[in-house]
Amino acid sequence: MVSDNLVIKDVTTDHLFTGYCPLIFTFTCDKVNFPQTERINIVFSLQQFQTNELIPEKDAIAILYLQKINEQGSGNESFHYYKGLNGQYHFISSFHQFILQLQNKLFNNKTGNVYLKGNLLKQVQIAYSVPRIISLITLRLDGLYNLFPTDLHGQINDKHYIISLRQGGKAAQQVELTKKILISEINPAFYKIAYSLGKNHMQDLKIKSQFPFSDKSSDVLDLPMPQSAVCYRELELVSTFDHGIHRLFLFKILGKRQIDYKPAVLSHIHNVYATWRHNKGLPGNYLLR
């Protein structure tokens, strides 16, 4: 996190990606140390920098320019929500960036699609240069269930969790009605099934046997865990707010448990960043869908 080209703090593991239309990043910090400014920059670099160190923008692999849209919290701790204003990167050449923008304009601007207009496409590509965990949400309402993936989420502090879902989607409506859910991180080998569950964001509730649940249930809410679950958190809804196409849910954590000690969980990155890593000879272990 940078302001006036000076490093405020390293937020590699202290931020959440919680929206893509518009781009939304969420941060937590004590109110004393968080910058009292409406605009901040997030610089992406392989180098490590110290607080108050000068970091010229020209040395960045990518940079996001953000503006504050909301703040939540009480006491000394608060959650800060910022939307993207602009983004620039050097993952691929300017020519290839132009081709991707043209392809996006020609083929993705369709009814039913979320069209990432103009610079928003670059902002989202940058956001996915950090691996985003794909977790599965389990919910139950009146004896019926749903199971669907999300990558716009994360634990914001020891007691709270944030999830972003699309406004108007059935999944968001179901979460608001039930208020208590299970979110599970899963084994990467489960990736094909996890992606196939994406359609359930717009599906009605179904009987339990229609989903790839295991025979295990969570400790507090007694909700069924998906197959290949590595760990889970049980959540209870505290509040929501809307921005862009997103409804952002703030939960308190009722409990969590580690099920399997795997070295990795299912995550994904954008192909422009994967291309950059490949061209730089950096390691990668990718599953193609």
Overall geometric form: globular
Q: Count of helical segments?
A: 5
CATH class of the largest domain: Mainly Beta
Q: How are the strands of the largest sheet arranged? A: 10-9-13-16-17-12-11
Q: Based on the coordinates given, report the CATH architecture of the largest domain.
A: Roll
- Cα-to-Cα separation, first versus last residue: 32 Å
Indicate the CATH topology of the largest domain.
Pnp Oxidase, Chain A
* Helix-strand string: EEEEEEEHHEEEEEHEHEEEEEH
Count of β-strands:
18
Q: What's the rounded overall pLDDT mean?
A: 92
Radius of gyration: 19 Å
Summarize the biggest pleated sheet: 7 strands, antiparallel
**Residue windows where pLDDT falls under 50 for at least 5 positions:** none
Q: Give the amount of beta strand, in percent.
A: 35-45%
Q: How is this structure best described in words?
A:
β9 (135-141) and β10 (144-150) form a beta hairpin. The chain has helices at residues 94-107, 120-127, 170-178, 191-196, 271-279, and strands at 2-3, 6-7, 15-20, 23-30, 39-44, 62-74, 77-89, 132-133, 135-141, 144-150, 153-155, 160-166, 180-186, 213-217, 224-226, 229-243, 246-258, 267-268. By secondary structure, the chain is of the alpha+beta class. It folds into two domains: 2-127, Pnp Oxidase, Chain A (Roll), CATH 2.30.110; 132-267, Pnp Oxidase, Chain A, CATH 2.30.110.10. The chain is built from five helices and 18 strands. It is globular. 31% of the residues are buried. Helix content is 16%, strand content 42%. It has a seven-stranded antiparallel beta sheet with strand order 10-9-13-16-17-12-11. The two termini are 32 Å apart.
